[in-house]
């Protein structure tokens, strides 16, 4: 065989092998790597790190977690920089789904926000509901009463949004009467853990999700005040599949798998047991199918591959069916490549 011809054959073989290897690697990475944007309360409490290996083993996937306030998490997802969400800001979540950037929203856990403050309780709010407590803090704080300070996350997180809702229920306009209204009201612009520490240093009141407060409780002198399980303090967590036209069907399916994982019976049991041994109570309570009680959807597998808001009622089933068939075909091809 002529040397030049032999060299050409070797070159073709090397190129073919490189392309095949590259194709196989790319497919595995894009299909099995999932980026989750989540709220600090789910991350700081360690819940997601606890659940991560169960998900990764079940779906042979790599779960990358980025945490920030729910508002920032939704913003990250809207840019297509996350595949799935786990957040707790219902109004913002509904808007996210309504504009076609999210789908398959399922609530998977809840707890309650808690108003915490110094043991001395200078505003005398212990034993009162959230709305009455906020009214007392406002009245005394704006009158410069010694020791009455409120520390807010001020970051448009789910907790900050819940706080604003309580101020509104108390009869105040957040923008004109609360925000930047004096030294009594401090905004940290930080996560829940950092905000609790600042409130502790200042011996001030703050609003926290129960899970993060319990996780940090050992390092704080602040105590829970107000009424336990006040309906105004209900805190619901949901998982949402992110939709972006640059996502492949396989990536969307893996995001759906995460949503389904969070509402599965086995994961619900894990959520309910998390924290009990260390704190004497769960940090989060699983939904266990009690959707209507919390005004959300917590059952039914996540199957949409395109947001229904982007499709007509008649084309939704056809489009999803077509994409599912494409996914099955692609998965088969990927398996064949990997085997080869």
Describe this structure in words.
With 340 residues, the protein is of the alpha/beta class. The chain has two domains: 31-111 and 235-339, Periplasmic binding protein-like II (D-Maltodextrin-Binding Protein, domain 2, 3-Layer(aba) Sandwich), CATH 3.40.190.10; 116-233, Periplasmic binding protein-like II (D-Maltodextrin-Binding Protein, domain 2, 3-Layer(aba) Sandwich), CATH 3.40.190.10. Helix content is 50%, strand content 17%. It contains 14 helices and ten strands. Strands 1, 2, 3, 4, 5, 6, 7, 8, 9 and 10 form a ten-stranded mixed β-sheet that branches. The longest helix has 30 residues, at 3-32. The chain is globular. The two termini are 29 Å apart.
In short:
By secondary structure, the chain is of the alpha/beta class. It is built from 14 helices and ten strands.
- Overall 3D shape: globular
Radius of gyration: 24 Å
The helix/strand order is: HEHHEHEHEHEHHEHEHEEHHHEH
> So how many helices?
14
Judging by the overall fold, what is the CATH architecture of the largest domain? 3-Layer(aba) Sandwich
How many β-strands, per DSSP? 10
């Amino acid at each position: 065989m002529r040397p030049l011809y032999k060299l050409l054959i070797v070159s073709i073989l090397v190129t073919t092998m490189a392309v095949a290897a590259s194709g196989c690697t790319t497919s595995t990475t894009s299909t099995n790597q999932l980026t989750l944007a989540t709220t600090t309360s789910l991350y700081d409490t360690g819940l997601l790190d606890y659940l991560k290996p169960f998900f990764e083993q079940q779906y042979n996937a790599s779960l990358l977690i980025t945490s920030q306030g729910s508002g920032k998490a939704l913003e990250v997802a809207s840019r297509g920089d996350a595949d799935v969400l786990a957040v707790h800001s219902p109004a913002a979540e509904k808007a996210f789904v309504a504009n076609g950037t999210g789908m398959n929203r399922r609530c998977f856990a809840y707890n309650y926000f808690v108003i915490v403050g110094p043991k001395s309780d200078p505003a005398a709010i212990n034993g009162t509901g959230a709305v009455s407590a906020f009214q007392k803090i406002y009245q005394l704080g704006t009158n410069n009463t010694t020791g009455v300070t409120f520390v807010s996350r001020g970051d448009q997180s789910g907790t900050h949004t819940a706080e604003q809702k309580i101020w509104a229920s108390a009869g105040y306009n957040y923008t004109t009467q609360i925000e930047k209204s004096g030294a009594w009201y401090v905004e940290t612009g930080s996560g829940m853990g950092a905000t609790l520490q600042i409130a502790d240093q200042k011996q001030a009141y703050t609003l926290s999700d129960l899970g993060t407060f319990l996780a940090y409780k050992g390092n704080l002198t602040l105590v829970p005040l107000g009424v336990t399980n006040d309906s105004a303090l209900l805190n619901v967590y949901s998982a949402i599949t992110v939709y972006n036209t640059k996502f492949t069907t396989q990536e969307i399916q893996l995001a759906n798998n995460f949503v389904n994982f969070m509402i599965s019976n086995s994961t619900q049991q894990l959520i309910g047991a998390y924290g009990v041994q260390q704190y004497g109570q769960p940090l989060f309570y699983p939904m266990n199918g009690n959707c209507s009680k919390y005004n959300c959807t917590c059952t039914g597998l996540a199957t949409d591959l395109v947001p229904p808001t982007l499709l007509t009622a008649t084309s939704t089933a056809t489009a999803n069916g077509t994409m599912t068939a494409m996914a099955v075909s692609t998965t088969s091809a990927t398996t064949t490549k990997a085997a080869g």
